[in-house]
Specification:
The complex is a heterodimer.
Chain A: H1 2-24, H2 28-37, E1 42-46, H3 52-60, E2 63-68, H4 71-79, E3 83-86, H5 89-94, E4 101-107, H6 115-128, E5 129-140, H7 145-149, H8 164-173, E6 178-184, H9 197-202, E7 207-213, H10 223-227, H11 234-285, H12 287-291, H13 293-306, H14 309-334, H15 337-350, H16 353-367, H17 380-385, H18 389-399
Parallel strand pairs in A: 1-2, 1-4, 2-3, 4-5
Antiparallel strand pairs in A: 5-7, 6-7
Chain B: E1 2-6, H1 8-14, H2 22-33, E2 38-44, H3 51-58, E3 67-70, H4 84-100, E4 105-108, E5 131-134, H5 149-160, E6 163-167, H6 168-175, E7 185-188, H7 196-214, H8 221-227, E8 230-234, H9 243-255, E9 260-265, H10 273-278, E10 280-283, H11 284-290, E11 296-301, H12 310-316, E12 320-323, H13 329-338, H14 344-353, H15 355-362, H16 367-373, H17 378-382, E13 386-389, H18 392-402, E14 411-412, H19 424-433, E15 441-446, H20 455-464, E16 473-478, H21 485-495, H22 497-500, E17 503-505, H23 511-520, E18 523-526, H24 537-544, E19 549-552, E20 566-568, H25 574-586, H26 588-605, H27 608-625, H28 629-644, H29 648-661, E21 669-674, H30 676-680, H31 686-700, E22 706-714, E23 721-724, H32 726-732, E24 751-754, H33 759-767, H34 770-777, E25 780-785, H35 789-792, H36 799-812, E26 817-820, H37 823-836, E27 845-848, H38 868-877, E28 880-884, H39 893-905, E29 911-915, H40 923-930, E30 939-942, H41 947-956, E31 959-962, H42 971-978, E32 983-986, H43 989-995, E33 1000-1002, H44 1007-1022, H45 1037-1057
Parallel strand pairs in B: 1-2, 1-4, 2-3, 4-5, 5-6, 6-7, 8-9, 8-11, 9-10, 11-12, 12-13, 13-14, 15-16, 15-18, 16-17, 18-19, 19-20, 21-22, 21-24, 24-25, 25-26, 26-27, 28-29, 28-31, 29-30, 31-32, 32-33
Antiparallel strand pairs in B: 22-23
The chains are: A alpha/beta, B alpha/beta.
């Protein structure tokens, strides 16, 4: 068991070195321009640990030196042939001459030291940096709620979380010419997925860095890096969440409205159909109707003989009534098979059965929608992302109002 | 003849819904008979389980892209109820799909009317495709139930067929229900019932006769004159200064007798009097909104800015294209430079010629060449309904650039020339005006001067001929001097009368002067080099005026009949040209005959009326024959969907189905290369180095007829799919990432090569059936297999990686083939396959190739450790044996260390140098090394060294030990060979394969056997008889890629051979 645990731990450990290095590449656009300014580019990493950053600096062409109190960690650096010294960071920093470094950095150092020491550190860094030199301080980002409430305290040696604005202000206050906050290491959000509450709590970049530059006649070479935006802020996450929530609410509102309209219509239709049925039943059941039946028959024959017009007119008006009723009544009729057959009977008697039937059918077909997909809940936008360029053009054409297609022969 | 066979009945058989398999047997028999025909099998995607079985049954009989699948929304629910809307969509989709295949005849064998999942409809589309339907043998029971709506619907469709095949007995029962003309009924003879081959012949014969009845016949031009369809004519017109505008001005009056023409122009005014008098002139904007008003659209495309408005227009409103220039690079580059619309040129380069062309466009040293070199015309041509060219040369160029058959459906219409009547008096007048004496021998060369007109070669020949010294002979260049060196050179030579004789250059000649020279000339000489498919108007002018003319056989001039022109070779000797000039000077009879024949030829071929007639025929034919499945389908569908109120996700699904079903009709095929892992993040692993190198080699040198398309698996939007890795590929080629990563929809006949190893992505994607869908559609899928180690020795790998690898392998062998990085891996794979899925052994292709080893382009790292000099001293102090590679259980470090301990204890003076970082699960070994008494003495461990350091150690050692217990390939052996470092290797098949006799091999897993081997080797070494590695063979990445391609390409060639050349 313990062997497995050790192995798993080792694996993660080994992987994390590469991972950390790959993450730190984000600083290369800041520091690389300095190489073209200074031929001897010294860099100092405070609290260098296992030396990933030192390695990266070295690969990039810097003469990098690391300082750390943990000798065990430094062994790894020495093995890799990295320049390191066992020393207290402030002591080491204070020992350096003015304007001797191009880069001073501290990764996950600021949260380990007293705030007063942090101020001294920033002050000293400014002193030892050459013009246009860079101070990089990376630390957990308390804008991330999970970081601020939980993960920050996983390390008992952590002092207090430092908000990005505070750390940026410290650098500004002590006289750095240009200060930039980089939010880092956020999990890449899956596009098309709705922002969840979890993403609000944990989606903000869990780390951030302040990159501060010492004044120089021209800071143009690092302009590009400084003008790029990095990471996810709490504002972004929250506003994404709010927008989605609002959309959802709107959609639900619309749905509710339509449902209540539909219910209203159905109720009306049901009432109408019932009235209609009652009226007809009344007529049929009335004894006078039955009694006058022969009479009516005779009259009908007469009508047919004399003038057909009134019958036709009567039939037409009945059709009109039914036409109006049938649309709204259909749902009701469908769910009452007895009523349906009764209506059919009546219609046959009235001689409009055929007409009614075809219209009933046509109407059913016209309202028969396509079978909804399994993933009916999917948004149109999500599905659109998955269309090829041509399929997208086809979709766009199909959603246009109907138009004769161009360019096809007769 | 192209026969499309509707396979739904066969699909029911394959899905075991129908018992006997007769239909499949019939279609099999037809495909074996089809010598003169192209047979395309149309499969319904609504019967998905039947597709793969049918594909394998027909493999080898028809090309992979002759099996086409269409797909539509499901219209049956679980209870078997038909959704009428979805069914109507499916019917339209199938018809549009069949239309898009442009068949000559459709055959629906054994129409299975009793199955509701079958979709059949006949002739719903405008272009009537002749259709033959045969009824199943047991069709007599059809009469049992006509009640269901579906059956009566299907029967209604049967009535629309042009021929109905059934047994005579069936017809009797049938005629009661079907009002079908007896002329359409064909009774199947009884004898056929038992002989499937006879039936196949019978059915084919009926298809043939029907097709002949319906074969395309040219329309009657007189009828057309009466009808005069409305034609939109897009071309620059005078005063625009372009040859095409003059050409159109000449063509229009004649073409107007067949069409009611409106002119669409992007210029402010039109000066041609005939056009102003007779045609309505419209703007492009107006045309965009009123294209419906026209029956025909004709575009005149050329390589100048006068045509730029036509490119976007052609995409929106397809029409017939007159391609005046085969090369369109300049106008497209001009548009891109003006950003109107953006990326026009880049997109065209990418679509027509692939990534290498895009790379060159963004390389500042080659973009200008790219503009000249690439035609960029493919996307334009594929959105046209038909193409008209003026020379055979354009068709030859199309074949050369876009593959066999690319231009074979194009119409060739000669440039038009109005015949001229010239009498001797006019000739004499012309000479007087031009200041030429009557009996002077006048040789003319027409057109602006320039290097490609070979004016200097004509001057060479002229000065070598007797005419240079002849005061009665004169050479006239009728045209303008170019700027720059060439102009100066010609000018200087012309001035030198002594050597060149009498030569005149007119400078820019107006129409009248030009005509006078044509009348005055005794002889014309028109030479060309580097032509780009265009027709030489000057040669035609010479012929039209009856000027006897000498040309070189270059480009379109080579197509002129030999009795109307005198021809020297394309690349000719000056002496040849001199000989022809002298001959024609001496022989007035030859000149007279040439002159007469030239004029007769022009009159019969280039006469405007005849050309306009040819235009009308070509336009009518193209409009009749072009597959307009998609536009018509979209028109009909949007009407249907509007009525039935379909939108949103359903509409998207329908769009997807259309995109899936209707082929893109591309001339080139795609070789998709999976780069899923590397384009996500380049971790610089060994495999990723392979991927990068092979992608680069493929793009630089793609197999002919294929586009290389790196693609990656994506889950954007929630469902796995492939996207074009355009951004990644462009960055790999140092281009700005201008192309978007669109979703990939492959076509039948395309290939997918799983080059990058990303087992987790692939397995997950296939869980949604992605790769199976590609395969069912007709995409051949191959994977590169790097090793079988996690499966063969799982104990030496982390648990999950072995399991993942196994699942991945099981997936790989479900498709077409695997290309392994060595023969040994191929062998291991085929052994594994015969054990796990013996039924796949025959059909699954396993091949191998070797990796490249030129690391020149792979950026070697630099830097030496601080204490390197001390280390180096130790390395050279004793004979040093080297181990290179990450320390992992299977690499054999333990055995080597034990062997050396034995040697050391015996007092052997040797070093063991281990180079490589600590890997997974080797903690006890590390401890053993660190606690070894010889550490830092005879045992050295260098971790994380640079290539530079490695290089130095290689040079100072005497032998490499390759002790790994399993490898996919043996790059360290090749590396050692390149440093001429001798090798002791474990006797693994893969090492034998890579190093052959260039290494010393050892067997056994115990320390002793290795110690003995090293001891033996040392003895051999002392006498200089150990195996040397100096002649170790290795490949460049280019060679490696060629091996990989030939491993996949073999089946491509086979499938192509089965296809008609018309793609």
């Amino acid at each position: 068991m313990s062997d497995d645990f050790y192995r798993a731990f080792e694996d993660r450990h080994r992987g994390s070195r590469e991972l950390i290095k790959s993450r730190q590449r984000i600083y290369l656009p800041f520091i690389k321009p300095l190489l073209s300014i200074y031929s001897d580019a010294n860099a100092l990493d405070l609290g260098c640990g296992r030396g990933e950053w030192l390695e990266l600096l070295k690969e990039s062409g810097f003469d990098a030196q690391g300082v750390d109190l943990d000798d065990g960690m430094l062994a790894a650096c020495r093995e890799l042939g990295l320049k390191v010294a066992t020393a207290d960071v402030l002591v080491a920093l204070k020992a350096l001459p003015d304007a001797s470094q191009t880069v001073v950095s501290g990764f996950h150092l600021a949260e380990h030291i007293q705030f007063s020491d942090l101020q001294i550190l920033v002050q000293e860094a400014l002193r030892v940096l050459k013009p246009a030199g860079l101070l990089i301080l990376e630390t957990p980002n308390p804008e991330n709620v999970i970081v601020a409430t939980t993960t920050f305290y996983m390390d008992p040696t952590h002092q207090r979380p430092i908000p990005p604005a505070l750390l940026a202000f410290v650098a500004e206050f002590h006289g750095f010419a240009r200060v930039k906050v980089l939010r880092l290491q956020e999990a890449s959000a899956i596009q098309g997925e709705w922002p969840s509450l979890w993403s609000v709590l944990a989606g903000v970049s869990p780390d951030y860095a302040v990159v501060a530059q010492k004044n120089a006649p021209s800071l143009a070479s690092t302009e590009a890096a400084f003008s790029t935006e990095y990471g996810v802020s709490i504002q972004t996450v929250v506003s994404n969440y709010d927008i989605t929530l609002k959309e959802l609410l709107n959609a639900q509102q619309a749905l509710l409205q339509r449902t209540s309209e539909a219910q209203h219509n159905a109720a009306q239709a049901e009432a109408k159909a019932r009235n209609y049925q009652q009226a007809l039943e009344l007529v049929y059941n009335s004894s006078s109707w039955r009694a006058t039946s022969p009479l009516r028959w005779g009259k009908e024959q007469l009508c047919q003989l004399r003038k057909l017009e009134p019958i036709i007119r009567a039939k037409a008006s009945t059709i009109k009534v039914i036409k109006l009723a049938v649309g709204t009544a259909q749902t009701f009729v469908d769910s009452h098979p007895q009523l349906r057959s009764q209506l059919a009977k009546i219609a046959r008697r009235l001689g409009i059965y055929k007409y009614l039937r075809t219209h009933y059918r046509r109407w059913s077909i016209a309202t028969q929608k396509m079978p909804t997909q399994d993933d009916a809940g999917r948004s149109v936008d999500g599905a659109l992302i998955q269309l090829s360029e041509r399929a997208r053009n086809i979709y766009e054409f199909l959603t246009l109002p109907y138009k004769k297609p161009p360019g096809c022969g007769k | 003849m192209k026969i499309v066979i509707d396979m739904q009945a066969a699909q029911l058989e394959a899905a075991a819904l129908v018992r006997d398999g007769r239909t499949t047997a019939l279609v099999l028999a037809i495909t074996q008979l089809h010598q003169n025909h192209e047979v395309v099998l149309a499969l319904s995607g609504l019967l998905p389980n039947s597709i793969e079985p049918l594909r394998s049954q027909f493999a080898g009989l028809v090309g992979i892209d002759a099996i086409r699948v269409w797909r539509a929304p499901e219209f049956l629910d679980e209870q078997g109820q038909v959704n009428t809307t979805a069914r109507a969509v499916a019917e339209l989709l199938r018809e549009g799909f069949i239309s898009s295949l442009s068949p000559d005849v459709v055959f629906i064998p054994d129409i299975p009317v009793e199955f509701p999942e079958i979709v059949v409809n006949v002739g719903a589309f405008a272009k009537r495709i002749p259709t033959v339907v045969s009824l199943p043998f047991d069709a007599s029971n059809l009469s049992i139930d006509y009640g269901t709506k579906w059956q009566s619907g299907a029967l209604a469709q049967i009535r629309l067929a042009d021929r109905l095949i059934a047994a005579a007995a069936t017809f009797i029962g049938f005629s009661e229900h079907l009002d079908i003309a007896t002329s359409k009924m064909v009774a199947r003879e009884e004898a056929i019932n038992t002989d499937i081959n006879a039936e196949a012949r019978f059915c084919l014969a009926i298809c043939e006769t029907l097709m002949e009845e319906h074969s395309y016949r040219n329309p009657d031009l007189e009828q057309l004159r009466l009808k005069r369809p409305k034609l939109a004519y897009l071309s620059p017109l005078p005063p625009a200064r372009s040859g095409i505008s003059d050409y159109s001005a000449e063509l229009l009056p004649e073409l107007a007798s067949y069409y009611d023409i409106e002119i669409i122009v992007a210029q402010h005014d039109v000066s041609d009097p005939w056009v102003r008098e007779n045609c309505t002139v419209r703007t492009v904007e107006w045309f965009l909104h009123n294209s419906d008003a026209f029956d025909r659209v004709l575009y005149h495309l050329g390589n100048s800015e006068f045509h730029q408005h036509m490119f976007p227009l052609l995409k929106a409103i397809p029409g017939v294209v007159v391609l005046h220039d085969f090369y369109l690079g300049h106008v497209l580059a001009h548009m891109e430079a003006q950003n109107a619309p953006p990326r026009q040129w880049t997109d065209a380069l990418y679509e027509s010629h692939g990534y290498e062309a895009v790379r060159r466009r963004f390389d500042p040293t080659s973009w200008n060449e790219a503009m000249w070199e690439y035609p960029c015309s493919l996307s334009t041509l594929s959105s046209s309904l038909g193409v008209i060219v003026h020379s055979e040369e354009s068709r030859r160029l199309a074949e050369r650039w876009y593959g066999p058959g690319a231009g074979c459906e194009w119409s060739h219409i000669p440039l038009l020339r109005t015949p001229v009547a010239i009498n001797d008096e006019e000739r004499a007048n012309a000479r007087t005006v031009l200041d030429l004496i009557n009996n002077e021998f006048v040789v003319c060369s027409f057109g602006m001067l320039g290097p490609s007109k070979l004016n200097h070669r004509l001057l060479d020949a002229w000065s070598q001929s007797t005419m240079a010294a002849d005061p009665q002979a004169i050479l006239v260049f009728v045209g303008e001097f170019p700027e720059g060196n060439y102009g100066d050179e010609i000018r200087a030579r012309v001035r030198n009368v002594k050597t060149t004789g009498r030569v005149r250059v007119t400078g820019w000649a107006d129409a009248k002067t030009y005509r006078n020279y044509l009348m005055a000339a005794d002889l014309g000489v028109q030479l060309r080099a580097n032509s780009r498919g265009e027709t030489s108007a000057a040669v035609l002018d010479c012929l039209n005026y009856g000027v006897p003319t000498v040309v070189n056989a270059h480009g379109s001039m080579a197509d002129l009949p030999e009795d109307v022109i005198v021809c020297v070779a394309d690349v000719f000797l000056a002496s040849d040209l001199v000989a022809k000039l002298e001959l024609l000077r001496k022989e007035p009879t030859v000149r007279r005959q040439l002159s007469l024949r030239a004029r007769a030829y022009m009159e019969s071929n280039h006469e405007p009326k005849a050309c306009a007639g040819a235009y009308a025929l070509a336009i009518e034919r193209d409009y009749q024959q072009s597959a307009c499945g998609l536009p018509e389908l979209l028109g009909k569908l949007s009407k249907l969907l509007a009525i039935r109120g379909i939108d949103g996700v359903d509409m998207i699904e329908i769009s997807k189905d259309i995109d899936y079903s209707l082929s893109q009709k591309a001339l080139v095929r795609n070789l998709y290369v999976d780069v899923s892992a590397i384009c996500h993040e380049d971790l610089r692993t060994g495999i990723q180095r392979v991927v990068r190198s092979i992608i680069a080699a493929l793009i630089q040198n793609p197999p002919p007829g294929y586009h290389i398309e790196p693609i990656y698996l994506s889950k954007k939007g929630g469902v796995w799919h492939y996207r074009y890795a355009r951004q990644y590929t462009q960055s790999l080629l140092n281009c700005p990432p201008s192309l978007a990563d669109e979703v990939v929809e492959p076509d039948a006949g395309d290939f997918l090569l799983g080059l990058d190893l990303s087992p987790i992505y692939v397995v997950e994607a296939e869980m949604t059936g992605l790769l199976s869908r590609w395969h069912a559609k007709g995409v051949s899928i191959y994977f590169v297999v790097y090793d079988m180690l996690p499966v063969l020795m799982p104990e030496k790998f982390p648990n999950d990686s072995a399991a993942t690898h196994l699942r991945w392998l099981e997936l790989v062998v479900r498709f077409d083939g695997a290309i392994c990085i060595s023969r040994s891996v191929a062998l291991e794979l085929s052994q594994w396959l015969s054990k796990t899925s013996p039924h796949k052994v025959d059909s699954f292709i396993i091949r191998d190739f070797h990796l490249g080893a030129d690391i020149a382009q792979s950026n070697p790292t630099r830097g030496l450790p601080k204490d390197f000099e001390r280390i180096f001293k130790q390395v050279v102090a004793r004979p040093s044996f080297l181990m290179v590679g990450t320390m992992e259980p299977r690499k054999g470090h333990s055995q080597v260390l034990d062997a050396f301990e034995m040697l050391w204890s015996q007092g052997t003076e040797v070093n063991l140098i281990i180079i490589g970082k600590q890997g997974w699960n080797v903690e006890s070994l590390v401890e053993k090394i660190n606690n070894n008494s010889q550490i830092c003495k005879q045992l050295l461990w260098l971790k994380g060294v640079s290539d530079e350091c490695l290089e130095r150690v290689y040079g100072a050692s005497i032998c490499l030990i390759a002790a790994s217990e399993g490898e996919g390939f043996g790059l360290p052996l090749i590396e050692a060979g390149r440093h001429k470092l001798p090798i002791i290797a474990r006797n693994l098949p893969v090492f034998q394969e890579v190093a052959g006799k260039n290494a010393f091999y050892f067997d056994g897993l115990d320390a002793n056997s290795l110690a003995v081997a090293i001891h033996d080797w040392l003895l051999l070494h002392a006498s200089g008889t150990h195996p040397k590695s100096d002649s170790m063979p290795w490949l460049s990445w280019e060679e490696s890629t060629q091996q990989l391609l030939s491993a996949i390409a073999l089946p491509i060639i086979a499938s192509r051979a089965n296809n008609s050349p018309v793609l």
